[in-house]
Amino acid sequence: MPEIKKHIAIAGGGWAGLACAVELSLIGHQVTVLESAKQLGGRARRVAFGDQAVDNGQHVLIGAYRNTLALLKRLDLTVDELLHRSKLNLHLQYCDGKEFNLRSPNLLAPLNLLAALLSAKGFTLVDKWHALGFGLRLFTYSLSVDDDISVAELLHRHHQTRNNITALWEPICLASLNTPIEEASARIFIRVLYDTFCRGSSDSDLIVPKTDLGAILPDPAVDFIELHGGNVHLSQRATELVIEQRHISAIKTEDKTISADHVVLALPPHACIPLIKSHPALHDVAYNLSAFTYNPIVTAYLRYKSSIRPDRSMQGLLGTTAQWVIDRSISGQAGLLTVVISGPGKHMQLENDELAGHIQNELHKCFPHWPRAEEVMIIREKRATFSSRVNIDLLRPTNKTAIQGLWLCGDYTATGYPATIESAVISGKTTAELIHRSISN
Ligand SMILES: Cc1cc2nc3c(=O)[nH]c(=O)nc-3n(C[C@H](O)[C@H](O)[C@H](O)COP(=O)(O)OP(=O)(O)OC[C@H]3O[C@@H](n4cnc5c(N)ncnc54)[C@H](O)[C@@H]3O)c2cc1C
Question: Predicted confidence band at 189 (pLDDT cuts at 50, 70, 90)?
Fold first, then answer.
């Protein structure tokens, strides 16, 4: 129990808000979570496909998500029961059959990256030579850029070949930054590559949920918060902040005013702006948040007769609209496949049934022996992530604001990472630590 127990109101029950709430509950403070939707989880949430629980988008984690994994352990969850972990083994193919494979062996980092590049399949010796040079510079920090540039420019400066770009760096950049290489920040990309390949040998492991995302964090987090005396309220949209003389005292929803010693806005930038823009001390932050742009992710769930079993649990496709095909057998849902399309593109102009047909045609071309799916559900998240574009880090706010007791938290804050679960959890944890420190001082 802390010496001084405080009440903290947290608007937003996504992974950042929940991570913050769990950490503060653990320290002994009382939290109230206000979530505008009917369910928790935000952009990483459970949805229904018929009688099956799936997610609003296929989420893939990596071994480097240390804060997320630590949070699950803190909730006393048996991580192995919730998450399927395997060594990095990327298969990408064109529909004409040309294949690429990058497999990370069980060696210390960065030897695993170097061995993976050397033994990669589908790449020529020239490709490997340039990829190895890039990998070595990554490890020795000589890739870093003083002024941010695009990933495309970074790859050009380091003489990456066409194969390396299209079958290696571009798919990794889209999957991790959800931003096309022509716009993506080299600084954020280098950070992701460094943390994935240059620290621990298991940091590049791929981690796929065995269950729906709701069962991984939101459900256990609510139990934990309530057990520690906190409350979680759904369908409660934060509408106004009560600020007097640069000090916050309460947050309002449509039907309640909740007094609090501290208020955390764990909302995406576009949802923060209406709450903060009228306060002069927050003008600069509101102005920066209004400059954020967003990229979509489209997820298609395809239901087959359960007898269908792709050769691989995760298959990358090149030259098609569909980018990744993931076999949900891994989540105990045999016969269900997920197709992921990250980033903007012409597919966003298609109606759902046109897009479903288009994806089915592409899969038929690449895997002629697969039958047509019996049912398809398309989920479009138009603002899936902020765009990790060049110099975006200059706009990302710190957790602390100019108003005493008001904090910002979410994947978009200044974590240095792209919009990911790990960035959200880091932000939630850091905010909780800062609040506790400010109370203790
Ligand atoms: C389709 C898709 C696929 C993804 N794939 C991956 C992946 O493979 N790996 C990965 O690491 N990350 C992935 N991400 C990104 C990841 O989901 C996000 O980075 C993370 O969930 C962001 O969490 P957050 O808490 O910062 O924000 P959010 O999840 O946006 O949480 C904000 C919460 O605030 C609520 N809210 C909004 N306004 C108000 C208000 N006024 N009052 C109260 N509540 C409000 C919202 O309903 C929401 O619940 C993906 C995202 C999407 C959409």
Answer: very high
Ligand 1 center from residue 185 Cα (angstroms): 21
Same domain, 377 and 285: no
- Ligand 1 atom 46, closest CA: 42
Q: Are 239 and 109 contained in the same domain?
A: no
Same domain? 403 vs 309: no
Q: Which residues contact 376 (CB under 8 A, 6 or more apart)?
A: 300, 301, 302, 303, 356, 359, 360
**For residues 37-60, average pLDDT:** 96
Which ligand 1 atom lies nearest to the CA of residue 409?
26
Residue whose C-alpha is closest to residue 426's, from 76, 15, 146:
15
Q: Residue 145: its pLDDT value, please?
A: 87
Dump pLDDT digits (tens) for 381-432. 999 999 999 999 999 999 999 999 999 999 999 999 999 999 999 999 999 9
Distance from Cα 178 to the centre of ligand 1, integer Å: 14
Write out the residue range of the structural domain in which residue 172 sits. Answer: 98-204
300-313: b (≥16 Cβ within 10 Å) or e: bbbbbeeebebeeb
Same domain, 304 and 224: no
User: 175 C-alpha vs ligand 1 centroid, how far in Å?
Assistant: 16
**CA-closest residue to ligand 1 atom 49:** 42
> Is 218 part of a structural domain of the chain?
yes
* Digit-coded pLDDT (tens) for 112-140: 888 999 999 999 999 999 999 999 999 88
Q: Which atom of ligand 1 is nearest to the CA of 274?
A: 41
In this structure, is residue 85 part of a structural domain? no
Q: Do 354 and 218 share a structural domain?
A: no
CATH of the domain at 312: 3.90.660.20
The reply to whether 411 and 262 lie within a common domain is yes
Domain tally, the chain: 3
Which of 32, 172, 267, 386 maximizes ligand 1 atoms within 8 Å of its Cβ, making it the mutation to test the pocket?
267
Nearest CA to 266 out of 33, 47, 66 is that of 33
Q: Is residue 52 part of a domain?
A: no
* Co-location of 242 and 376 in the same domain: no
Strand pairing category for 83-86 and 206-209: antiparallel
Residue 87 falls inside a structural domain: no
pLDDT given for residue 378 in this prediction: 98
Q: Give the C-alpha separation, 211 to 344, whole Å.
A: 28
From the list 297, 298, 296, 274, the residue with the least C-alpha distance to 286 is 274
